[in-house]
Amino acid sequence: MGRGAFERILVAAAALAAVAAAVLFLRAPDPEAGAPGRGGYALTATDGSTFTEASLEGHPSAVFFGFTHCPDICPTTLGEIGTWREELGAEARDLRFWFVTVDPERDSVDGLRDYLSWSPGVTGAGGTRAEVDEALAAFRVYARKVPLSDGGYTMDHSSFVMLFDRDGRFVRNIGYREETGSAVAKLRALIGAGAG
Amino acid sequence: MSNLLRAGMAAALVLSSPLCARAHEGHDHGAAAATATAPAEALSVARGFTRATRPGAPVAGGFMVITNATGRDDRLVGARSPAAGVTQLHEMAMAEGVMRMRELAQGLPIPAGATVALRPGGYHVMFMDLKAPLVEGARIEVTLTFERAGEVTVPLAVLAPDAEDFPGAGE
Ligand SMILES: [Cu+2]
After folding, report:
1. Quick one: what percent of chain A has pLDDT higher than 90?
2. Which range is the signal sequence, renumbered to this chain (chain B) (predicted)?
3. A144: nearest CA in chain B?
4. Which end of chain B has the least Cβ crowding within 10 Å, N or C?
5. CB-CB neighbours of A3 under 10 Å
6. Is the distance from CB of A170 to CB of A68 less than 8 angstroms?
């Protein structure tokens, strides 16, 4: 290989590296866009409002995904939410809880309202399959139909409660059956952040 | 708490241990104990409960502790209940934050000498198409079918919607 050819390769390699760096720089994500909870979803809420990314702004929020044909984790988590609200008392004033169905084929918004009527402070949200799928994608929540032998089905789904700050930014999760003290501490920190 | 209730709970606790099953054979365990015992050296089912359903929820889990004192391996292969249109045997498993529920296609092995717990978050009897909401304080019946022991009918106490275990059954 001649000296000229070698130089040309070096120059080409340097140019490629510069382009790659530029592409990486340009693609560095906007901290808001694409974050969990951000997106163009719009669901019908049980309080008559529309659940969108703007619903997560102006107050701390906790969002949970479930369905009414759920024998265990949904009733358990709703029970835990009741316990957390009791422990927090007046501190929980502006903390909003959302229960988004992963099973809109069986969960109407009216059905969700009934189901949640024992859970003050928790608002349900539902819609068409496509609308719910858009919300699931925005929250990066997993949900999948699993057939049962009687012809029915159940849903596999993410079991955590997602916490968002007053600016609608995802902070962290509370895990399924997380110890009450730990869950309440996370909520207290969420409420305290940016309060005032 | 009434003495009867207390005695019933004590009996339910004692009966969850296979060693004690014989000593308590034939006693009246009290209405609240939700306990059924087959003859000694048999299969016993204790601490049976389900949970009150929220409005519109058509499903519920059935939970209990099954002790096999027969000396021979057995297997829970089916269940039915007048309270539900469909009753199945299920298992829950958590993986990477996702809860999955599956039918136990091969049933649930109850090995000789073993005590197998059906509890929230794990094995359960799955009641679907409930004929009526389950109300706290009521009870329902479930008939379990075992490969060897045959059919065993037990009552399940309907506890709070988020009950984790039979009262007084802390471990
Ligand atoms: Cu199940």
Report:
1. 78
2. 1-23
3. B100
4. C
5. 7
6. no
Interface of B with A in 71-110 (CB under 8 A): 86, 88, 90, 92, 94, 97-103, 105
What residue ranges do the domains of chain B occupy? 43-159
Sequence-separated (6 or more) residues with CB below 8 Å from residue A96: A55, A59, A60, A61, A62, A121, A123
Tell me which fold the domain B43-159 belongs to: Immunoglobulin-like (2.60.40)
A86: CB partners within 8 A, 6+ apart: none
> Among all residues of chain A, which has the CA nearest to that of B53?
A75
Question: Do residues B133 and B89 make contact, with C-beta atoms less than 8 angstroms apart?
Answer: no
A69 is in an annotated binding site: no
Residue B28 has pLDDT above 80, yes or no: no
Q: Is A143 annotated as a binding residue?
A: no
Pairs of residues, one from chain A and one from chain B, whose beta carbons lie less than 8 Å apart: 93
- 3-state SS class at A191: helix
Q: Which domain holds residue A45?
A: 3-29+37-192
Q: Identify the pLDDT of residue B167.
A: 78
DSSP state of B105: T
Residue A61 has pLDDT above 90, yes or no: yes
Cα separations (Å) of B16 from A84, B3, B116, B158? 32, 20, 10, 19
Mutation target among A63, A69, A72 for the B interface, most CBs of B within 10 A: A72
pLDDT tens sequence across A80-97: 999 999 999 999 999 999
Coil/strand/helix, residue A73 = helix
- Chain A contact for B162, CB < 8 A? yes
Provide the whole-model pTM: 0.79
Nearest-CA distance B125 → chain A (Å): 10
For A150-179, write each residue's pLDDT tens digit. 999 999 999 999 999 999 999 999 999 899
For residues A16-37, one letter each, b for 16 or more C-beta atoms within 10 angstroms of the residue's C-beta and e for the rest, the string is: eeeeeeeeeeeeeeeeeeebbb
A53 a known binding residue? no
